[in-house]
Specification:
The structure is a single chain. By secondary structure, the protein is an alpha/beta fold. It has one domain: TIM Barrel (Alpha-Beta Barrel). It has 13 helices and 10 strands. An 8-stranded parallel beta barrel has the order 3-4-5-6-7-8-9-10, surrounded by 6 helices. A two-stranded antiparallel ribbon has the order 1-2. Strand 7, helix 5 and strand 8 form a beta-alpha-beta unit. Helix 1 crosses helix 2, helix 2 packs parallel to helix 3 and helix 4 packs across helix 5. It starts with a strand and ends in an 8-residue tail after the last helix.
């Protein structure tokens, strides 16, 4: 497993990060979740990403239990704040000082740790002054509860504003967590250039496009039984947009490239993401331990430029590149 510096900081994280969105506390049983975490550790993964909103705090609880007994200093634990948790009262969401301070304390208890390595604003809060949010994050750092701060699905302008305030407050905003894959490249035009300028890395989710890039979904064929696409609790809604015959045909046409590199289709997808030098890590999830081991093997793979160009030619115009999509990821009204 290779490691990379996260942003313009001294923190190193594993190129492949294990994340538990949609799985822990909902899609898979706790024993399986624990086995997946152990498989990640066995594969050399040291970075783990979660959020308090995942399964309404249960995902953090499961991850905390699974990591018990591990040397804390050898791990990088990331979590997030924004989404509604608990009974979803009027202050149970957003990036107010109240919600941030209460949320970090809850996350630390569930994760069985005194601090998290990276605390991320899960979305941009249009209803709380950014100054209030960044001051609360800075205070979490000064209290020793958080080492570094990051954001998730923020636009280039929002990242710039947050980064400037963080710098003024003497803390490091070093990451952004967007969706990114061969099929979804909306960050390339604006977010990545701004991030490179500021010293911010991308911690990307869905590098395999919710499983569409594994090649197991075939054009014109029924969805495989037990797959994510058939599991309403496991992300069926998220993958649906990629299950057109056009997209799936192009994905099948990637198989000769994967074969040429000696990679599985999933490994090709993860390795493709890691070719971008602004990527700190690719977050992978799993419902079975063997999936973790397969994905982790993408670390360190170098895809030659000619094959990167072939991949671009294969996926062609099904790629989503509209930079304006990022702005739609943060809700325009409170969920509670």
């Amino acid at each position: 497993m290779k490691h990379r510096f996260l942003g313009r900081s001294g923190l190193k994280i594993s190129e492949v990060c294990y994340g538990n969105w949609l799985t822990h506390g909902s899609q898979v049983e706790n024993d399986t979740a624990t086995a997946c975490v152990k498989a990640a550790l066995d594969a050399g993964i040291t970075s783990f990403d979660t959020a308090d909103v995942y399964a309404n705090t249960m995902a953090e609880t499961v991850l905390g239990e699974a990591l018990k007994g591990q040397r804390r200093e050898s791990l990088e634990i990331f979590t997030k704040v924004f989404g509604p948790t608990g009974p979803k009262g009027p202050n149970d969401a957003g990036l107010s000082r109240k919600h941030i301070m209460e949320s970090i304390n809850g996350s630390l208890k569930r994760l069985h740790t005194d601090y998290v390595d990276l605390y991320q604003a899960h979305r941009y809060d249009h209803f709380t002054p950014l100054e209030e949010t960044m001051q609360a994050f800075a205070d979490c750092v000064r209290q020793g509860k958080v080492l570094y701060i990051g954001v998730s699905e923020w636009t280039a302008d929002q990242i710039r504003a947050g980064h400037e305030l963080a710098k003024d407050l003497g803390v490091q905003l070093i990451s952004n967590q967007p969706e990114y894959s061969m099929l979804f490249r909306v960050i390339e035009e604006e977010v990545v250039p701004a991030s490179k300028e500021l010293g911010v890395s991308q911690v990307v989710w869905s590098p395999i496009a919710q499983g569409a890039l594994t090649g197991k979904y075939l054009p014109g064929q029924p969805l495989p039984e037990g797959s994510r696409a058939t599991d309403e609790k496991g992300g069926a809604g998220a993958i649906k947009r990629w299950l057109t015959d056009d997209v799936l045909t192009r994905v099948q046409n990637l198989k000769p490239i994967a074969d040429e590199l000696g990679l599985s289709m999933a490994q090709l997808a993860v390795a493709w993401v890691l070719q971008n030098d602004n990527i700190g890590c690719a977050i992978v999830g799993a419902s079975r331990p063997e999936q973790v081991a397969d994905n982790a093997a993408a670390s360190g793979v170098e895809i030659p430029e000619e094959l990167m160009a072939r991949i671009d030619g294969v996926v062609g115009d099904v790629v989503e590149r509209d930079a304006s999509i990022t702005a739609t990821r943060s809700p325009s009204q409170r969920e509670t």
